[in-house]
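Possible regression after last week's pipeline update?

I re-ran a chain I had predicted before the update to compare outputs. Posting the input and the new output here so someone can diff against the archived version. Not blocking, just want to make sure nothing changed silently.
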Amino acid sequence: MSTSESPEVTPKKSNRVGKILLFGIAIACFYYIYTQLDGAASEEDKTLIEFMLGVLSTIEWVPWLLMMTGYCLFYFSIDTLIITKALNWFIKDTKYTDILPIRASAYIISMFNEQIGKGAMAFYLNRRDRVPGWEVTSLMLFIMFCEIFYLLVWATIGLAIGGQDLPQDLSEKFGLVKYIAIGGAIFFILWVFFFRGPLFQNNRIRNLEIFHAFRLAKLKHYGAFFLLRSPLLIAAVFVYSTALGFFGVPVSSMILLALLPVIFFAATDPTPMRAAAIASWIVLFPDYPGEIAAFGILQHNFFILFNAVIGLMFLPRANKELFGDQSK
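New output (post-update):
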């Protein structure tokens, strides 16, 4: 009796703990943001609303909107290309244009949780192309795995190039990245050896269907993923450093090259309005609390909302491919 009940109870408890933890992180981030902004407003003898209205009045809105629109479209094109390539590597030959509605429509769900958005892509491929669910799930796991190491590699590169330009306190904190990178490199080598090496070919975990993509992935696939996605990070360094200038925060591209991978990692935490990423900006630029808070809120959420608009544009095609005449 206990055996039959445990599969139902344990996931519910785990899911509940995860939601409580996420909610706690969000509350802590919003409280930190509020206290920093309220303190900055008090120093100028203003209310919080007056303080933030003053910050918003100084932003160069038109060039920022034009630049962000171009960046979002560029991101969408590269993001779709990566998913297309991964499908071609591990599952089936697929046209780039056939993936556009899949990637775009998933952005709508990604407003709330990026990982659920990837799950929506898995459902789409399974329903439209009859790709087995475990194969698509494996593909999405491969992409998420590569994204983590892609950010870690760029964080290491950024610190090697621009670390000397960081303030002393930040330099000491980010010095941990090199140790994380060493540990990550060791883990990556062991991971690839486990799934591709000759010693564990009959291992039960290695042969689970959900690890299908990892069993097929060669070093060239990991390298290709990094090279395909790297233009996004390089473009982001230029876009974010320029955008910060529009918000009145002077910062060099070299400093952002070191900081952005860490901030993007914080942005993967599915907190409301990307609270974790916004809090990270304030921690990194405490001298500009109002400007950097406005930047974090607008920058990250414009990106999410604009991508969702792209998704809405492709939604009729996506519905037609999934449900045919039933979508009318």
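Follow-up from reviewer: compared with the archived run. The chain has 13 helices and no strands. Marking as no regression found.
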